[in-house]
């Protein structure tokens, strides 16, 4: 199925709720969303402390500062991403009425966006069509949120020459005009490949990078990252009264 865009969400939960929230997400929340006609796919990601340590810049995009934005969900949309968000919001009301949102515990959305798919660049060795790139297999991602960057596509062409980079998908925000997201699909050590990308395929002076953040993919029902998060200096409890 062709992807038209993405729904991008950064989330957090209390440390004591990591396993139960992730289990609820894998078993009760993700399946009904992925089954929607408007959704073409979806994956979840996590930034354990070792990935937070290499997150840039020091004062990043709101929602990712001061240890926030540990978790990210990206849905590929089969329709206009704003239309997909509307359908998902209506469906959430149905799930809430059925009591299917009750098992998540304390969690909050830090930031969310609907983004149009602008362009893709795949690893030439994989011989992927453009429609294939958003679906390419990966074990981690690097998210670069930027303003400007007319040469970003050339940067992506250099990026896919780096070992462990299978493709780059670039999307334009509908909620924050002028903001773009370049999502690099990675395998191997997410941290090592991210550092290699920064060295081999840096962004030009025409781009203001407001977030450069790596995330590991969340394998369903494998929450071995939880203890590393709990043992870190990342915030143990939510710092907001707005819990969604």
CATH architecture: 2-Layer Sandwich
State the low-pLDDT regions, or none.
none
Structural class: alpha+beta
CATH overall fold name? Alpha-Beta Plaits
* Total count of helical runs of at least 4 residues: 6
Average pLDDT figure = 95
Distance between the termini: 30 Å
Tell me the series of helices and strands, N- to C-terminal: EHEHEHEEHEEHEH
What general outline do the C-alpha atoms trace? globular
Tell me the domain tally: 1
Q: Provide the helix percentage.
A: 25-40%
What is the number of E strands? 8
Describe the 3D structure.
The chain is of the alpha+beta class and 244 residues long. It has a single domain (5-222), classed as Alpha-Beta Plaits (2-Layer Sandwich). The chain is 25% helix and 32% strand. It has helices at residues 18-34, 49-52, 81-97, 152-159, 190-200, 226-230; strands at residues 5-13, 39-46, 71-77, 107-122, 140-148, 165-173, 179-186, 207-217. It is globular.
Question: What are the defining features of this structure?
Answer:
244 residues, alpha+beta, Alpha-Beta Plaits, eight-stranded antiparallel beta barrel, 6 helices, 8 strands, globular
